[in-house]
Amino acid sequence: MSDLAGQPAMLSLRDIASTTQMAGIGRLLDEVRRLSGPSLGDLPGGEYGPAAQQLRRQTRSMPTSALRVGVQQALQLLDTRPWVDPQAYAASRCRLGILMSRRAVEDDWIARLEARRRRLGRFDDPRTRNALDADIQVRKQQRRRLIDRERHAARIVEEHQRGYQALCDWQVDHLQQLVQAQWHARTLLERQEQALDEVVAAPPPCLVAELGAPPRSPEARQVWRQGALAILRFRKDFGIQDPDRALGRPCAGASLRRSQVEVLIDQTRQLIHQRHQPFPLGESFNVPDLGLP
After folding, report:
1. pLDDT digits 0-9 by tens, 249-275
2. CA 102, CA 96: separation in Å to the nearest integer?
3. What is the 3-state secondary structure (H, E, C) of the chain?
């Protein structure tokens, strides 16, 4: 079998991310976004300062393979960040607030009961006095328990706050690497789009055989691009270089994934040729685990 990399239309296919690579890019961008999205503006000198300009130049000149190595290194770095649990932190703060409110209620009740106890005279019913004393003691016991629980809840909140402070410190220490990794990931996505542009402009015969020629209308062409990307990613995942068969020869290890891509190819053809209905570009294809953006 001949290697498709030798064909002019396929020169940029090295920029098509495999499923694993695409998952890494997506995870990196999601994780960085959760870290309040560090950007070029956070670098010394701001978005147009020397550090940002140098990062832009270096990223543009880096080969795709080096950018992917940078993404992998950034994922390893993210694995070292201090762990925080936003839901647990929110729940602990809510619990502390509830306990503080309940203690305030007990304080108010005790103050009211003690004030009523002081208003009793020598000739009032002793049973009333005894009942008030017993009620005050019960309330004070409840307040002591609430204070213990409140202190414990406050310690948990403080632990979460220390964790968040550690995460902030970690992010400041690795700001340069995080911004750089974000740019590497975005550049990889841009290069993939450029590679797809070249494929659309000069599609290889195996894609034309499966999907037909790229349509002229922008909506149909976008659908064609998604189908082409699924095929190219499948080829990259399984090292297929057959110039005549888009999905190569059937093999046992790729049977499930191959059937999924075949379903997507059928959907692509149907969407391209349904001329009287709008294209559902806002919805993804109903095919799982194909690594499509």
Report:
1. 888 788 888 899 999 999 998 888 875
2. 10
3. CCCHHHCHHHHHHHHCCCHHHHHHHHHHHHHHHHCCCCCHHHCCCCCCCHHHHHHHHHHHHCCHHHHHHHHHHHHHHHCCCCCCCHHHHHHHHHHHHHHHHHHHHHHHHHHHHHHHHHHCCCCCCHHHHHHHHHHHHHHHHHHHHHHHHHHHHHHHHHHHHHHHHHHHHHHHHCHHHHHHHHHHHHHHHHHHHHHHHHHHHCCCHHHHHHHCCCCCCHHHHHHHHHHHHHHHHHHHHCCCCCCCCCCCCCCHHHHHHHHHHHHHHHHHHHHHHCCCCCCCCCCCCCCCCCCCC
Q: Round the average pLDDT of the chain to a whole number and report it.
A: 86
**pLDDT level of residue 277 (50, 70, 90 thresholds):** low
Assigned token pair, 191: 């290069």
| Chain CA centroid to CA 190, Å | 19
Asked whether 31 and 78 are in contact (CB, 8 A), the reply is yes
Do 18 and 237 meet the contact criterion of CB atoms below 8 Å apart? yes
- 179 burial (CB, 10 Å; 0-12 / 13-18 / 19+) is buried
Residue 36 vs residue 58, higher pLDDT: 58
Q: What six digits make up the tokens of 83?
A: 């762990």
Per-residue pLDDT, 275: 57
Q: Cβ neighbours of residue 248 under 8 Å, at least 6 residues apart? A: 235, 238, 240, 241, 242
Q: Quick check: pTM over 0.90?
A: no
